[in-house]
Model the fold of this input.
Amino acid sequence: MTRPTEHAPHIPVLLDEVLAALAIRPGDVVIDATFGAGGYTRAFLDAGATVHAFDRDPDAIAAGREWPETRGEPPRLVLHARRFSEMVEVMAEAGVARVDRIAMDIGVSSMQLDQAARGFAFALDGPLDMRMDKGRPNAADFVNEGDEAEIADVLWRYGEERQSRRVARAIVAARPLTTTGELAEVVRKAVGYRPFAKKGGAAKDPAPRNFQSIRIHLNGELDELQQGLAAAEHLLGDGGRLAVVSFHSLEDRIVKNFLREAANAVPGGSRHLPEARPSTRPRFGQVSKAIRASRAETERNPRARSATLRAAIRTAEPPHQPKEHAA
Done:
């Protein structure tokens, strides 16, 4: 099995497809909602855009400040150490009411996965952390102090772990846990993982899905995604383009349902149920089908295997207003 290293190169996932979906023009104002190691941002700058890049991870922002594009007058790269769910407020503070393109690459970044000290990676032994920013409990707090039922619920809800109760019971019995290696071993033993037990090849390691579920829970990632999509709708002008890359079925479902509702892609009627008619005009159009990495890309970059891109184009229709905020 190929293991990540501390110095693995950052390879942006579905980069060609994201660039095709965004169709960036020189002078466009683009938001990279998840800066990370800057793979997408570099391509956007090369296409002639001015980029506003968001990241809640202070390490990512600190690295980005070394880029020469942050020092121009005006700068072509503006970094925001904020959550992408706060895009509307942050851009208003920057004096920008509308943008032309928004890219969102959801989940943990390659930079975070490749640094053992960040505690995200099951294959690199490090402290149990998994926080994208520091203002919240870490993974060690959760597995060592959480209620067994709560841990089981998180593993099932966000990782679809069929043996979630057994894994949660094993985690509680093994306390205290302090490293990613310890947690991975507990998970593997709890589900009876044997690497070469599956006929024709190695069995699927249960550690990644359980680590992922804890990370999603700790960082509130699904709520952040829903709020970020709503913020993107508010910021994109008529003809503005949105591209979202996700790596988890729950994330992709949120993106798919958001765009389906915004595009008024309601199910057709039947002889038993009259056709549903949208009450408003579509706020997004030209919604793409799910776009996934080619075999060649997954061979170059195994992390691309689970990536799904969905893209759409904003219409002139005003953004959706929640009922409590509607006029």
In short: The first strand starts at residue 29 and ends at 32. The first helix runs from residue 15 to 22. The radius of gyration is 21 Å.
